[in-house]
Amino acid sequence: MSQHTRTPRTARIRRAGLAGLAVVTVAGLLSACGYGSQGSSSSSDNSSPSVAASGSGAALSAGTVHIGYFANLTHATPLIGIQDGKFAAALGGTKIATQIFNAGPSEIEALNSGAIDIAWVGPSPAINGYVKSQGSALKIISGATSGGAELVVNPATIKSEADLKGKKIATPQAGNTQDVALLNFLAGKGYKEDPKTGAGDVSVIRTDNSLTPGAYAAGQIDGAWVPEPTASKLVSEGAKILVDEKTLWPNNQFVSTNVIVSQTFLKAHPDVVKAVLKASVDTNTWILANPDQAKKDANAALKALTGKALSAKVLDAAWSELTVTNDPLASTLQAEAQHAVTAGFIKQPNLTGIYDLTLLNQVLSGEGKPAVSAAGLGAQ
């Protein structure tokens, strides 16, 4: 696949209203291990401060809901909706406690431990969390984002897929969605890799997203398969896009982020889950309707979480690569699972029942929006 540049598209992020949020510290959660549940813990996981907030009115059936997500543009919905007050408004007196993660496997660990209740996460860790628990740990309850991940490389040393041999390519974490995508891609090109260690014809280096641009600038890696805005940060350092992942999918659409919930929390507090989904749908509606303010709002939210805003060039390029959506694009999930099989992380899984879109479709119906499909993988 040839290197190419992006065509800008309208940004879709809402203003982040940060006033009035109380910052609290959450004790360190669990280290991450494996595909969805194993692997080394990222240095940034669980290190960002949590935010507690509540709206007006009585609390719902839970006094607090714990929500996990990433400081990535592919997690735009919670990134903005929590900080601009839409989630607090939907939840009334129920408090929101948030935790920021670097990649999905450690987030699944936190969900399994009960440290978080609801999470925005990529499909690969969600699949493994479901399979490893024999269908008892989680449900996918909504879509969130399509697109927003690329393989970017040093054009001086890598001009085609054939040049990847012997090179060092970074991913966010062993078994996260981009890690699986890279290993599946390499397998399709005939490269041999060890999914556990990352050793092989191509050295897969699991690196915290926040450290990847520095590693690239220092010549420690030759490229990375990463989500936005990390990919565009690398491009700003002189990297070129070798593979835009969306070009590998029919209609340029694939699920890059879903919303998942602990089954225990879903059973105990469906009213809270429905309120979070309403906030998610309302936030996505605003994002899609307000492109002009979007980029400023994205930067404000990212700066609040990371301490540093993106340059206009990086923000424009990164946001042009993704689309927020309520649709989980369930028809692509089986393919994502097959990628994990090809990469050597899991055996052929049975994903029947991984989705429960009941509450989401109730919210969508209430707002006059069409229902979304589980593509035969819904709750039984």
Summarize the structure.
GO terms for molecular function: ATPase-coupled transmembrane transporter activity. The chain is α/β, with parallel strands linked by helices and 380 residues long.
What's the helix and strand layout?
Elements: E1 22-24, E2 50-53, E3 64-70, H1 76-81, H2 86-91, E4 95-101, H3 104-113, E5 118-121, H4 123-132, E6 138-147, E7 149-153, E8 168-171, H5 177-188, E9 203-206, H6 212-217, E10 223-227, H7 230-236, E11 240-244, E12 255-262, H8 263-268, H9 270-289, H10 291-306, H11 312-319, E13 322-324, H12 333-343, H13 358-366
Parallel strand pairs: 3-4, 3-5, 8-9, 8-10
Antiparallel strand pairs: 1-2, 2-4, 5-12, 6-12, 6-13, 7-10, 7-11
Helix pairs in contact: 3-4, 5-12, 7-11, 9-13
Family: Belongs to the bacterial solute-binding protein SsuA/TauA family.
GO cellular component, one term: periplasmic space
GO molecular function: ATPase-coupled transmembrane transporter activity
Report on this model:
With 380 residues, this protein is an alpha/beta fold. The protein folds into 2 domains: 22-146 and 255-366, Periplasmic binding protein-like II (D-Maltodextrin-Binding Protein, domain 2, 3-Layer(aba) Sandwich), CATH 3.40.190.10; 149-252, Periplasmic binding protein-like II (D-Maltodextrin-Binding Protein, domain 2). 33% of the residues lie in helices and 18% in strands. The chain has 13 helices and 13 strands. Strand 8, helix 5 and strand 9 (203-206) form a beta-alpha-beta unit. Helix 3 runs parallel beside helix 4. The radius of gyration is 19 Å and the shape is globular.
